[in-house]
What does this fold into?
Amino acid sequence: AEVLWKTGVGTGFSSMSVVNGRVYTMGNIKDTDIVYCLDAKTGKEIWKYSYPSPLDAKNYEGGPNATPTIDGNRVYTLSKLGMAFCLNVENGSVIWSKDFNKDFGIKSPNWGLAGSPLIVDDLVIFNAGTTGIALNKMDGSLKWQNGSDESGYATPLPFTLDGKKYLALFTAKSLAGLLAATGEVKWEFPWKTSYNVNAADPIVTGDKIFISSGYNRGSALLKVTPDSVTQIWQNEKNAMRNQCNSSILINGYAYGFDGQVGGKGKLTCLELETGQVKWAQDGMGTGSLTAADGKLIILSEKGMLVMAEALPDAYKEISSLQILSGKCWTTPVIAEGRIYARNAAGDLVCVDVKSGSDAKASSAKNSWPQFRGPSRDGKSAETGLLKKWPEGGPKMLWSVENKLGTGYSSLAIVDGLIYTVGMIENQGILFAFDLDGNLKWEKNYGPEWTGSKKGTRTTPTIDGDRLYLISGNAKVVCFDKNTGQQIWAVDGKEKFGSKDTKWGISENALIVDDKVIFTPGGEKASMVALNKNDGQTVWMTSDFSDCSSYSSPILIERGGKKIIVTQTDGYVLAVDAENGKLIFKETFADIFGAHKNINPPIPVSYKDCVYIVSGYDDGGVMYNISDDGTVFTRKWVDKTLDNHHGGVIALDGYLYGSNWLSNSKGNWVCIDWETGKVMYETAWQNKGPILYADGMFYCYDEKDGVLGLVRATPEKFDVVSS
It folds into this structure.
């Protein structure tokens, strides 16, 4: 995948229509709605048409909601306040227009009209008024109208029964079935949602219709005839609550986002016939999706473009690429091998996803944006990798030698650049290389750790266009990831009283919504959240105090609550990501008995549990987390997998990693996630880091630098190549 172009189209949530090499969308700039026609290959403007319209922001950014509809040589649009236009497709000139309020007395709903125009024969149909309105598509004259009260927010859906054309219209308080030609309401299924937000388009399949709404309303499958509707099943409050964007149906399974916007949703797979949830995947907020070639094309709420298999067995990500920042509620579009996506602010991007694209460009866009990867769990979505290496190992493409300085930092890889840090003459240096190993730029961020085991510790964290790092001296710094320009910095010692540990601060920054999470372990606060845009303090822990201890936090979600889990000097710690309030703590002395207060490994979350591990004969502890995220219950303790530095991986019900026998020796271990039972403990080279990709582990001997390709199985430590 490769970003071909990017342009601005004004504030709004209008999606894109792509016809004959042109892209059509809408936005609002300075209380003016604008209809854009752009060249699909270059993004250059071909024409635009504008008219006065207030931004009308109500608890969100505002701007147009509906998407232009193209029919022959005409473009049909609808503003949120009810201005309907028919424009010439070639130059944007007005053929006809209607003001729904003045001409038909129609009231706009609270967040404005949002359904896109639907063309059926000689009609252009809108979800406006109580139960829809249809105009003659040629001249805009009224053909039929059902009331003038507030409407729902979905687009009308056409379907055919017994040779007649019908409409499925999601109104403010029901799903209605209408004859398309006359607007006659043949049946209604009551469906009341908080604030009358029925926004997700229904899914019509044969004589069945699937509907879904947010605000804990749920979903339902209905059976329809020309004159009646009956319920097959209904899920309330626990399955597929589409607040804004619709689900999609593939081979009998609905894929969509369950939950409210604002990062609270999960991508969910639901069996249409039964309403049973097959799986749910968090980490993408409440985004949107489309599909092509058996693949889900997902746009996360924060602008991550994700490709995943459309399979009911389990969520399987193929690749991901950060293409936008800010709020992304608009459904992406794929046409002619290109994906078009936008955010609320009006940034519109075009991404080339044609098959056969240059492999190098494709690999350049596979994101590894932070310590331990996209989800901080040591797993890569890469596929098609070798299952056995040639003699002597894979060919080395290039190396950078004697240029990085001293340090222990890993790498972040985003948008074709490789980022890392090192210490040169006691100064921390941030490096950016291209994928051929050429240095693009380097930036000094000040003094680094010169105590025991001197050098850098942190791995850069990339979020949108910004890069965050934490120095061994407790300084948090934000850079522009493209240029290396420093944007802000916060000294944790000065601001929070951060205390030096024996080997320096070794934390990797965690981004949660608009916050950077940092554990200074100071007199004023053990953990803090900084505004990621300007570094200002959002919250500080006030009910807990302990020193930092080399670990990095993770984010988990339970019951709509975002929870930060980490290790400090003497505690397992969980705090509310929203306000920093303590949820849970337990001392390592209580868990393991004697404890050395050295806790580098990052926690691991899997299913409804979280695993904490530490070396030096401490071991690991598994906690079950209650559905509402308020109760952590110790499940088991294991002493065999006392991971020292390299992290552990949870995969298919097992934990894998190396243990500590001494500072220069360790074995490789697999234990059962549910019980803590040791499946194997095997001596190979030495202890070290572990990563997973495409069915294989990559195990790195920290003493001699031997890299092993290991089959991912609990049966035995099976080294295929090294």
Observations:
- The radius of gyration is 28 Å.
- The chain has a mean pLDDT of 93.
- The chain is about 5% helix and 45% strand.
- Helices lie at 100-104, 359-364, 492-496, 588-592.
